[in-house]
Design brief:
Distance between the termini of chain A: 15 Å
Shape of chain A: elongated
Helix content of chain A: over 70%
Largest interface: A-B, 38 and 37 residues
Structural class of chain B: mainly alpha
Number of domains of chain A: 1
Mean pLDDT of chain B: 92
Largest sheet of chain A: none
Strand content of chain B: under 5%
Oligomer: heterodimer
Order of helices and strands of chain A: HHHHHHHH
Number of strands of chain A: 0
Number of helices of chain B: 15
Low-confidence stretches of chain A: none
Shape of chain B: globular
Radius of gyration of chain B: 22 Å
Mean pLDDT of chain A: 94
Chain lengths: 175, 339
């Protein structure tokens, strides 16, 4: 595996260095915190809708739950932004880790499922029973792939091979 | 006088012992004349004990850091108490969980199921015995006058093997060896990642289910009637249960990582405040006032205050949790040269 030099360039940049090494409360851990908060919005709100589709709290009317999708998309936006910032801080660590690509794959599938579910809820002509019938399998997909994405995310810190470009050079004997 | 972790441990250890005793007493008394008030009260106390025992367990590691290696203190006695605590804590939490299930059954069916009563009886009796053992072994660390052998010269050597009574020898078989337990958790990176993944999934479930109920009480999503939203609470409790278990295991795995972090103790403080918030919601009648709210109806101010506290404290939990690592050297224990 050849790691592109651009990772080194990014890691050496002032911004990337600041994120990683600044003792400020608003650097790395702040970004990580908002990544977690974004996760709790997306997965949390999506879980409530999924559980409702799967039969929990049947007295809860379905249509108003449409409003929860705004929370989910907000959470996703927060995580895309914070995710990019985390990547800027540790490009080599993430991009040389196969688990990272699994995480992105699981997120993609979960987001596609979320979009399909959103379309169902937006369809005013659908009755509640029809909505549930069509939404059940999406709910199962959603729960499965968000759980997979979160798990993959947590695995990242245990499975990375190179913390940074410098480590890559040393460990592959190229230095 | 500064309050340190040893103080807190000695303060908090009263709750699992005396609390379990009182709750068990009330629970047994409730069978006389099928007194549902006593039974509900006992369930509430079992649940409260489960909550407070989190603090007892965690501060124990701080007390250990302060005592270990000091003259006249046997590391073997500390390890015995620690092993006992590492067995007991699961049963305290199990009893609390069963009691919460019982309280849920009171809410949904006006009475707990028979299996729940049997389970609480069995679990609480076991917990009483284990908690007494933990308390006793803890006392023996620094109170030579209560030890089985009065031969103090043997006890001061760090690797002295403590004498066991008849009950102690039986319970001893089930007590984990602290060193092995800790090493077992951190040595396998897949286990560690699994624990952390479950912790995050738990938090997502909690934020989603509790969050939507809080938002409704604050006046958002008013097209929803309130009572069905509360039906998600068992899922929130399951998430909380997962997080307490994974939290304990993480702590046992690497206590030094946590006891010196100010963020960890602030997180536990937030958790205790959440317990108080829940008590305020359920025990003062606010819950009964919001239950019947239909679509479009506004919740009373008391409910809104509880809801905003809940949201604030759950996000405080996440924040403190994420900052544990960064603030990992902010607590200094007197007499300990920490990492």
């Amino acid at each position: 595996m050849v790691v592109p030099q651009i990772f080194n360039t990014v890691e050496q940049s002032a911004f990337s260095t600041w994120i990683r090494e600044s003792p400020s409360l608003f650097a790395f851990y702040f970004i990580l915190l908002f990544h977690t908060i974004g996760l709790s919005f997306v997965v949390g709100a999506n879980t409530v809708v999924d559980l409702r589709l799967l039969g929990v709290a049947t007295a809860l009317p379905l249509k108003p739950l449409k409003r929860l999708f705004a929370i989910m998309w907000t959470g996703l936006a927060i995580n895309v932004v914070t995710g990019v910032l985390l990547l800027i801080a540790y490009p080599t660590k993430a991009m040389t880790n196969p688990v990272f690509y699994f995480k992105l794959l699981f997120i993609t599938i979960a987001v596609i499922t979320m979009r399909k579910m959103n379309i169902l809820f937006d369809d005013a002509s659908l009755s509640d029973t029809a909505l549930i019938a069509k939404g059940k399998s999406l709910a199962v997909m959603s729960l499965t792939f968000w759980i997979a994405a979160v798990s993959a995310g947590r695995l990242l810190s245990e499975t990375y091979r190179f913390l940074n470009y410098h480590q890559y050079l040393i460990k592959t004997g190229l230095s | 006088m500064e309050v340190n972790l040893a103080h807190l441990h000695l303060l908090l250890n009263h709750f699992p012992i005396i609390g379990t005793f009182i709750a068990l007493g009330l629970f047994l008394a409730s069978f006389v004349g099928e007194n549902e008030d006593l039974r509900r009260a006992s369930f509430i106390i079992f649940a409260a004990v489960g909550f407070l025992t989190i603090g007892t367990f965690l501060t124990g590691f701080g007390a250990q850091a302060m005592l270990t290696g000091k003259p006249g203190v046997s590391d073997a006695l500390i390890a015995r108490h620690e092993g006992s605590a590492m067995l007991t804590v699961w049963f305290v939490e199990l009893t609390a969980a069963l009691a919460v299930i019982g309280l849920w059954q009171y809410h949904r069916n006006s009475r707990p199921a028979h299996w729940t009563l049997s389970a609480v009886l069995f679990a609480s009796l076991l917990t009483m015995a284990l908690v007494a053992r933990t308390g006793n072994t803890g006392g023996e660390i620094n109170h030579p006058e209560i030890r089985a052998t009065q031969d103090t010269s043997q006890d001061v050597t760090p690797d002295a093997v403590p004498a066991e009574g008849p009950i102690g020898s039986i319970i001893r078989v089930f007590e984990p060896t602290p060193e092995k337990f800790s090493t077992g958790i951190v040595s396998n990176k897949w286990l560690w990642a699994f624990l952390m993944a479950m912790h995050f999934i738990g938090l997502a479930v909690i934020v989603g289910t509790v969050g939507i109920l809080d938002l409704r009480m604050l006046g958002f999503l008013k097209q929803l009637p309130l009572a069905p939203l509360h039906r998600f609470m068992p899922w929130a409790m399951a998430g909380l249960g997962i997080n307490i278990v994974t939290g304990f295991l993480a702590f046992i795995g690497q206590p030094e990582n946590y006891i010196y972090s100010g963020a960890l103790w602030l997180k536990m403080l937030a958790l205790m405040l959440l317990g108080l918030n829940a008590a305020a919601f359920y025990l003062t009648g606010v819950f009964n006032r919001v239950q019947p709210l239909q679509a479009g109806e506004d919740a009373p101010m008391s409910a809104k205050l509880i809801a905003v506290s809940s949201l604030f404290l759950w996000f405080a939990m996440i924040t403190f949790g994420r900052y544990i690592q960064l603030l990992s050297n902010t607590v200094r224990l007197p007499g300990v040269t920490s990492n």
